[in-house]
Every structure is written in structure tokens, then in C-alpha cells.
Amino acid sequence: NNTSIDNSIFDENTAVIGGALGLSGTSNSISNSSFTNNSAYVGGAAAIHDANITDSNFTDNKAHYTAGALVISGDTNISDTNFNNNTAGDGRNDIYRIKKISSAVSA
């Protein structure tokens, strides 16, 4: 699955995870887009897995727990993107990266 989001506006959305957008799969992209005044428990604006995010703006988004703007995982890269006035309950106001578990532990 690959999804391309370009020149889009996400404003005043609410969800439990990823206020405006939940995106997973492979080879996803977000460009020239705006995320404003979105809210969630985790990932105020979006929850993203495996994506390239470029030339976008994340402003005034709120997470009640963590990741005021974005919670990201997998191979997600961000460039030429602005983060302004995002807030989260734990102080991770812009981005929180979930680290991949690379191996299992056995007893």
C-alpha cells in the first residue's frame, strides 16, 4: 500500500490516535500539506508509519498524552517541515518516534 497526500488541509479533527490522519503501509508521502488545530490522545495531528513528509506545516495541534503533532514509526523521514505551537501532556510537543523492536527475548 502506498498513499500520496499533496496540497491538503487537515483542520479541527479529533481522534484517539492521530487526530486528523492515521497512515500506515509502505512508500507513503505527505507534501505541501497543513495540519492545524487537530487533537488526539496520542499524535495530535497524525499517526504515521513509513512515510516521507516534506514541505508541510503542523500548527496548534494537541495531544492529551504524547506527540502534540506526530507520532511516527518505521522508516519515516521529515524534511522542510515546520512545527509551531503544538502541545502534549508529557512535553513531547512535536514528534514522538516509536522505536521498532528488532528481536524477541526468550527465557
Which features characterize this protein?
4-stranded parallel beta sheet; 15 strands; mainly beta; globular; about 110 residues
Structure description:
This protein has 107 residues and is an all-beta fold. It contains no helices and 15 strands. It has strands at 4-6, 9-11, 21-23, 28-31, 34-36, 39-42, 46-49, 51-54, 57-59, 62-66, 70-73, 77-79, 82-84, 87-88, 95-97. The strands form 4 sheets. The chain has a 4-stranded parallel β-sheet with strand order 1-4-8-12, with no helix packed on it. Strands 2-5-9-13 form a 4-stranded parallel β-sheet, with no helix packed on it. The chain is globular.
Helices and strands, with pairings:
Layout: E1 4-6, E2 9-11, E3 21-23, E4 28-31, E5 34-36, E6 39-42, E7 46-49, E8 51-54, E9 57-59, E10 62-66, E11 70-73, E12 77-79, E13 82-84, E14 87-88, E15 95-97
Cα end-to-end separation: 36 Å
Radius of gyration, whole Å: 13 Å
Major β-sheet, in short?
A: 4 strands, parallel
Strand-pairing-aware structural class: mainly beta
Spatial order of the strands forming the largest sheet? 1-4-8-12
Output the helix-strand order: EEEEEEEEEEEEEEE
Binned strand content: over 45%
Oligomeric state = single chain
Stretches with pLDDT under 50, minimum 5 residues: 101-107
Number of helices: 0
Overall shape: it is: globular
Mean pLDDT, all residues: 92
As a percent range, the share of helical residues equals under 10%
Total E-strand runs: 15
Question: Would you kindly provide a brief summary of this structure?
Answer:
The protein has strands at 4-6, 9-11, 21-23, 28-31, 34-36, 39-42, 46-49, 51-54, 57-59, 62-66, 70-73, 77-79, 82-84, 87-88, 95-97. The chain is mainly beta.
